[in-house]
Amino acid sequence: MALIHEIISWSEKLPSWQRDALRRLFDKPEGLASDDYEELYCMMKKENGIPGITAPEAKPLLTSHVPSDPKTSALTTLEELKDLQNVNMIAENQCLKFEKQGLNVIYGGNGSGKSGYARILKHVCRARGEFSKVLPNVHLSSSPGQPGATLVYSSAGQETSELAPLS
User: Fold this and answer.
1) Contact 97, 159 (CB under 8 A)
2) 164/121 Cα distance (integer angstroms)
3) pTM, full prediction
4) Which residue segments constitute the domains of the chain, with CATH numbers given?
């Protein structure tokens, strides 16, 4: 049994507000926001019989909330990041291509965009752990707008291109 199935099975014995908290933790790798804590607190109070409390209905963690098991799904390969918009100080419409086989190395001088690309990759690949969010270019004279990029990837031999908001 995969670890996620063991976690979900274990969570079935928890109160519903704790099961909702688990789902939120899987959905938000960057961490819970203050409104998440407030909603969970209201759910906990309502579930424990405190009168006059309104709370959203708890949604438990399910296998559909976590990435699929790589043994049962098709291999997905990121081929390129292109059309970057408002990502740190990376110039607009840049393209970063990846080789299908082997190791890809990104190198360059200070301020050339290595960390910006790393933030994008962590965001789109659903990396776990702490990481900096993708920030817009604050040096633009007008309102910078939300960061975004186009992802080109292949899955089961079929290439797909998709605009990805990075906020």
Assistant:
1) no
2) 11
3) 0.55
4) 3-65 (no CATH), 76-165 (3.40.50.300)
